[in-house]
Amino acid sequence: MLDGDVIARGIPLGQLVGAVSYVDMIFFQTQSRYPTHAESVLMEAYLVSLCEHGVTSPSTHGARVAASVRAPFGASAISFIAAAMGAYHFGALELAMQELSTIMQSGADPRAYVEERLSRGERLWGFGHRFHKSPGASTMDARSLEQLQEATDPRVRRLLELADELGWNGPHVALVRRLGRLLYERKRVPINVDGVAAGLLLDMGFDARIAMLFVVLGRLPNIARLYAEEQEQPANRFVGLACREDPTFDRTVDRDLGGVAELHQRLS
Q1: Which domains does the chain carry?
Q2: Are 89 and 216 in contact (CB under 8 A)?
Q3: Cα separation of 234 and 68, whole Å?
Q4: Would you give per-residue pLDDT tens digits along the chain (268 residues)?
């Protein structure tokens, strides 16, 4: 060891540079081990599946607006992370991991668990999507139902295909598929990417409390691209969403001068 060496879990960093992959280092830093071949392939595939999320997600909006007002890239990245943390966005990954762990540790019957949650009008984290929906089918055998509900989201479809190709037999992914089939039978609700990722990450031994790590790693290249693209657009171009110039904007009372005057009168 040389004076000034940087040490990573007892190993000089210089010995790791060029010798291990970035995915290897994720496992090494968080679990003090290197991934198996199957884990490495699936982790790489999962991170790639996160690298594009379209233009409609809240995390995309925040990052683009920050870039539009010419905030630095770091501010756009922070805007993305802040929006992504919400339970109804990428924050659902941590919740899905927690829920799967609870079911697995309790030994609860999956069918009984699903029925209980649905009877209370509660959702299961990791299932359902606002865009990726499959048509229902009144009479299908169990295997056909499983194939349909797993094929709804292209990311879910490919990740599970890859897991099957690699002979993945982790219990949490098996539980996700079982819950997914039950939910699809009852409500036509498919597995979403957070559900399959939760199963994979738990099978790999990751802690649910660091779930956002994977979201940030996967999405940041996408956010960097959006930031660069926005620099070629007119500055502050999203201001039209908050003024009369946008004909589709439904003004609230507090934006209407008459409404403000009326409100002040009532309060005085």
Answers
A1: 92-209 (1.10.230.10)
A2: no
A3: 8
A4: 666 788 899 899 999 999 999 999 999 999 999 999 999 999 999 999 998 876 667 778 888 889 999 999 999 999 888 887 777 677 889 999 999 999 999 999 999 999 998 888 888 888 874 444 555 544 445 555 556 656 678 899 999 999 999 999 999 999 999 999 898 888 888 899 999 999 999 999 999 999 999 999 999 999 999 999 999 988 888 765 555 555 554 544 444 444 445 545 555 5
Provide the 10 A C-beta neighbour count for residue 185.
16
**Distance in angstroms (rounded) separating the CA atoms of residues 267 and 265:** 5
Q: Which residue shows structure tokens 């055998």?
A: 141
Contact 213, 53 (CB under 8 A): no
9 phi/psi in degrees, rounded to 5: 50, 45
Strand partners, 191: 127
- The owner of tokens 């009008």 is 121
Helix (H) or strand (E) holding 8: strand 7-8
